[in-house]
């Protein structure tokens, strides 16, 4: 890790338990192969040390326990409600909200419920929405048909379960899903409060999974016939790729360090043996780390040469400028305390991001208009 990051780490104080910000006890709803670019290419991609964030507008207000956010091709947005188990369409221009329907089988409790959303890579032809949720027995991934021709509130088809058996708990349910540049489905899972699951490659808890759109272990995964892509995670809720198809993931720490990791297939990211940087070469060290009061990271996005990371307990948006799979400068914080807890950030094209707050989830301090979606311009 560059010396500049080591200096930054010393400035960040270790906080109390970073469960989805500040869950009871310890823990909570925290937290493709690398390619090597040429030196010229890397230099061209390296963003400036200091960036900027401008809040362009408030897109929508009055959202209830929003969690997942999936942009539609026409510029509208799909939002999942963790506790209501509904999916709502938000007009990207006017902010008008239209409920598509409720996803059956969701069992909200603690940090569990209806969480991540992702559109099928063939959405233009199949109109399939993928969702990660907590059922009565496990965490699972389903796909549902979105039929815009049906009446509002009844536009979701019956869920087709493509993957199940991910351990569930009152805390640490993971929940982020995303289709990668390879058109395969990635899922961040948590260890459900059972720390031993993270190091067990036979368990689905505390992992990043890589699946086909039908829910089978993806070809080329590092462990034969296994959906496991990386392991040794505590609670992964952020997944994003850079322009060179390199995968990054955010992870909730316990009492000391939250992490941003560059993901290499088959690598062990240390939990519970290591939290943050370790001197043990068995574990893949994070490219950046924060004291848990400063972050408690959920969603991440890549834009303008940087990873942008939404902080729950930290109540700020972090910018981590990149040079390849390393940070090129100290992480930089924006919007500190301005909008409360920040749950999800996704690219909106070019230098724009969508950012969604999380103040109605039982751990925040809701303000008038919460929860909301913001449009940001970043450099």
Verbal overview:
The structure is a single chain. This protein has one domain: TolB, C-terminal domain (Neuraminidase). The two termini are 23 Å apart. A hairpin with a 5-residue loop joins strand 2 and strand 3. It is mostly beta strands. The protein is globular, with a radius of gyration of 19 Å. It has 3 helices and 25 strands. Helix content is 5%, strand content 36%. The strands form 6 sheets. Strands 18, 19, 20, 21 and 22 form a 5-stranded antiparallel β-sheet that branches. A 4-stranded antiparallel β-sheet has the order 1-25-24-23, with no helix packed on it. The protein has a 4-stranded antiparallel β-sheet with strand order 2-3-4-5, with no helix packed on it. It comes from Streptomyces coerulescens. InterPro entries: 6-blade_b-propeller_TolB-like, Glc/Sorbosone_DH, Quinoprot_gluc/sorb_DH_b-prop. Keywords: Signal.
Structure keywords:
5-stranded antiparallel sheet; 379 residues
Could you outline the blueprint of secondary structure elements for this entry?
Blueprint: H1 3-11, H2 39-45, E1 53-60, E2 66-71, E3 77-81, E4 86-90, E5 97-102, E6 114-119, H3 123-126, E7 128-134, E8 139-145, E9 160-166, E10 177-179, E11 185-188, E12 208-211, E13 228-230, E14 236-241, E15 247-251, E16 257-262, E17 288-291, E18 297-303, E19 306-311, E20 317-323, E21 326-327, E22 332-334, E23 342-347, E24 352-357, E25 373-378
Antiparallel strand pairs: 1-25, 2-3, 3-4, 4-5, 6-7, 7-8, 8-9, 10-11, 11-12, 12-13, 14-15, 15-16, 16-17, 18-19, 19-20, 20-21, 20-22, 23-24, 24-25
Organism: Streptomyces coerulescens
Biased composition (Polar residues): 32-43
Protein name: PQQ-dependent sugar dehydrogenase
């Amino acid at each position: 890790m560059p010396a500049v990051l080591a200096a930054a780490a010393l400035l960040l104080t270790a906080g109390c338990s970073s469960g989805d910000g500040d869950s009871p006890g310890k823990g909570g709803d925290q937290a493709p192969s690398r390619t090597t670019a040429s030196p010229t290419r890397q230099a061209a991609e390296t963003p400036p040390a200091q960036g900027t964030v401008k809040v362009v507008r408030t897109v929508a207000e009055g959202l209830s326990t929003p969690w997942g956010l999936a942009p539609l091709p026409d510029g509208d947005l799909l939002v999942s409600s963790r506790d209501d188990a509904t999916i709502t369409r938000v007009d990207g221009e006017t902010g008008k909200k239209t409920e598509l329907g409720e996803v059956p089988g969701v069992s909200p409790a603690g940090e569990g419920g209806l969480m991540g959303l992702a559109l099928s890579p063939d959405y233009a032809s199949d109109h399939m929405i993928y969702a990660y949720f907590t059922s009565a027995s496990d965490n699972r991934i389903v796909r549902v048909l979105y039929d815009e021709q049906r009446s509002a509130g009844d536009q979701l088809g019956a869920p087709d379960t493509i993957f199940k058996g991910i351990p569930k708990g009152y805390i640490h349910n993971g929940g982020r899903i995303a289709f990668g540049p390879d058109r395969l489905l990635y899922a961040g899972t948590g260890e459900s409060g059972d720390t031993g699951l993270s190091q067990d490659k036979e368990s689905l808890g505390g992992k990043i999974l890589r699946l086909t759109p039908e829910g089978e272990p993806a070809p080329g995964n590092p462990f034969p016939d296994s959906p496991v892509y990386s392991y040794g995670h505590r609670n992964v809720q952020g997944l994003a790729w850079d322009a060179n198809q390199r995968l990054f993931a955010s992870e909730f720490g316990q009492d000391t360090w939250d992490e941003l990791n560059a993901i290499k297939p088959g690598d062990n990211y240390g939990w519970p043996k290591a939290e943050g940087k370790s001197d043990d070469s068995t574990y893949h060290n994070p490219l950046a780390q924060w004291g848990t009061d400063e972050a408690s990271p959920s969603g991440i996005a890549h834009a303008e040469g940087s990873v942008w990371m939404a902080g729950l307990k930290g109540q700020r948006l972090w910018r981590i400028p990149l040079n390849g799979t390393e940070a090129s400068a100290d992480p930089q914080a924006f919007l500190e305390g301005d909008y409360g807890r920040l749950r999800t950030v996704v690219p909106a094209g070019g230098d724009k991001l969508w950012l969604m707050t999380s103040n109605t989830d039982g751990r925040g301090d809701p303000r008038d208009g919460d929860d909301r979606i913001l449009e940001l311009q970043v450099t």
